[in-house]
Design brief:
13 helices; alpha/beta; 8-stranded parallel barrel; 23 strands; 24% helix
Length: 548
């Protein structure tokens, strides 16, 4: 795991604007939270070319003129400071309607809405913020998803040509797309221009064409694509996409996205719309069915850098980026699924710069429910603990427990996560359990290829029994030399491309030859693997899990 160096913030203007509230306020850490706002926005939905917001109140909220003012704010604006998009008579049950203005300078697609009243000539906020929750109603495309099964992999691009993906029976792949690679600056050579919301943006033709060819190559083999969106901000054309609290010398694989400055916010909207349209499966450039915003975003100093130790500051910034990401993608292709991403450190931090996965998930869900529930999905990485532990079926008792207070959630106790997501507060707007993607999971062969072989079988077979799990993405096809320095020989092929036994067993899983694969895994484990999984038999061992 790469750890970022602490940087110096540049040109930071503060985290929030002054809030004007009608109700009392509670000061919580680094943010101000309203208590008891009297008006509730129960929904904001696209209907035709308009947005319809439904307002509820126990009693009519008084104001100077008996009116409710509906404000449309950009994600970085707080309080009644944006644009008034509708004015309606105050009441206990009120509907407000205003134009969506899609793909114009006044687009409301990814803005947040609030209600204010005028008192003493001043606008006072009387509701929480609420976003549009059905952006798919605006979608130009409704592409049929390429769903075939959960068997997935992080591949080498060369595997498209070698035939290994077909040989393995891969049904899904996961890959990273870097905004700093695809975004270009005005005046750069070899660019693709894109007009959106009244402005022109530029993308690197070379890098975009690379992704086109790769994605189409996967699709032509019947493989569903999941893309992880990351941003290193290292190019002139992408620097405005880096959050102000992530600027200034920090070295990290990905930085938090800029949701605090108008230029960065508008650029992010355009980039998401461009990618959503291009990879809708309808424009000749390939189809991406699943998008993940960031990688292990609770790991602040490792993967989603911000120079703030406040959980609320970090989650709030991520939620704002997620709203843009979700609404812009779904407004292009109604059938894409959009995921967040957290790691396996459920109740224990191995890195003090991280947040616990559970607390991050809880705070994310709180904001999503408060500001308009949408059909977001959960991308989870149930690695062994420690990462280099070779036993997927027999983890350290100190780290792997069968209750919600467990330090880590691995494939052994993945049921804890599944049960947690069955709570009513986590259900999607249709009252269903959300899509759960095990978008990154790998097992090392450093301590023996047999252990990796059995671990791969155990992990896949257990995931296949869980109806709420929609993807099992094995990390990775080929060993990585740098990871191997940390005992993480996670590939199912060696550095020279030769196949490990884990390759052969993964090829058999989910096929007519699965019986032989199960028999081999059972022999290594010392127990029938079907019985172990069906009866949820969990073996653990003493000690801290360190393997000599």
């Amino acid at each position: 795991m790469k750890v970022c160096k602490r940087g110096i913030t540049k040109n930071w203007k503060g985290l929030a604007a002054l809030l004007l509230l009608t109700a009392s306020v509670i000061f919580c850490g680094n943010h101000v939270q309203a208590a008891g706002r009297p008006v509730s926005i129960s929904s904001c939905q696209i209907a035709g070319g308009n947005v319809t917001c439904t307002l509820r109140a126990d009693s009519v909220v008084s104001g100077d003129d008996g009116k409710y003012y509906i404000y449309a704010n950009e994600v970085y604006q707080d309080g009644p400071v944006g644009t008034v998009v509708a004015t309606v008579d105050a009441g206990t049950s009120v509907t407000a309607e205003f134009p969506l203005n899609y793909n114009t300078a006044d687009s409301n697609l990814s803005r947040k809405f609030l209600v204010a009243v005028k008192r003493g000539g001043q606008m006072m906020q009387v509701s929480d913020e609420h976003y549009i929750t059905n952006p798919e109603a605006n979608a130009a495309y409704t592409s049929t998803r390429m769903t075939r099964g959960i068997k997935g992999l992080l591949p080498e691009v060369s595997a498209i040509a070698t035939g290994e993906l077909k040989d393995l029976g891969i049904q899904q792949v996961v890959y990273n797309l870097y905004l700093d690679e695809v975004c270009a600056a005005p005046g750069d050579s070899g660019t693709v221009s894109y007009d959106y919301n009244g402005q022109t943006y530029y993308f690197s033709n070379g890098r975009v064409t690379h992704y086109d060819q790769m994605i189409k190559g996967f699709n032509e083999q019947g493989i569903q694509v999941t893309m992880v969106l990351l941003n290193r901000g290292g190019t002139e054309g992408s620097q405005d996409l880096v959050h102000p609290l992530a600027r200034g010398g920090a070295e990290c694989p990905s930085y938090a996205l800029n949701v605090e400055e108008d230029g960065g916010v508008q650029h992010l909207k355009a980039a998401c719309a461009f990618l959503g349209q291009r990879y809708s499966g309808q424009t000749g450039h390939g189809q991406i069915d699943n998008w993940i915003l960031g990688n292990e975003v609770n790991a602040r100093t490792s993967w989603w850098y911000m120079d703030s130790t406040s959980l609320d500051v970090n989650v709030s910034a991520y939620v704002k980026a997620f709203r843009i990401f979700y609404n812009e993608l779904k407004a292009m292709n109604a059938n894409v699924q959009v995921y967040n991403s957290i790691d396996q450190e459920w109740g224990r931090k191995s890195n003090p710069g991280s947040f616990l996965a559970k607390e991050y998930l809880d705070q994310f869900n709180y904001y999503m429910n408060r500001e308009g529930n949408i059909d977001w999905g959960l991308s989870y990485h149930p690695y062994n603990s420690p990462l280099y532990d070779p036993y997927a079926w027999n983890g350290p008792a100190v780290w792997v427990k069968q209750n919600v207070s467990t330090p880590y959630i691995t494939m052994q106790n993945i049921d804890v996560l599944i049960d947690y997501m069955h709570q009513s507060k986590f259900l999607n707007p249709a009252g269903e359990v959300r899509s759960i993607s095990l978008a990154e999971i790998g097992f090392t062969s450093y301590f023996g290829e047999e252990k990796q072989e059995a671990s791969v079988a155990y992990g896949y077979l257990k995931a296949a029994t869980l109806p709420d799990v929609d993807a099992f993405m094995l990390f990775r096809l080929k060993d990585d030399a740098h990871e191997m320095e940390s005992k993480l020989s996670l590939g199912i092929t060696n550095l020279d491309g030769s196949h490990k036994p884990a390759y052969d067993i993964y090829r058999s899983l989910g096929t007519a030859d699965e019986g032989a694969a199960k028999a081999r895994a059972s022999e290594i484990i010392g127990m029938d693997i079907d019985e172990m999984i069906s009866k949820n038999i969990v073996w653990t061992r003493g000690g801290d899990g360190v393997v000599q």
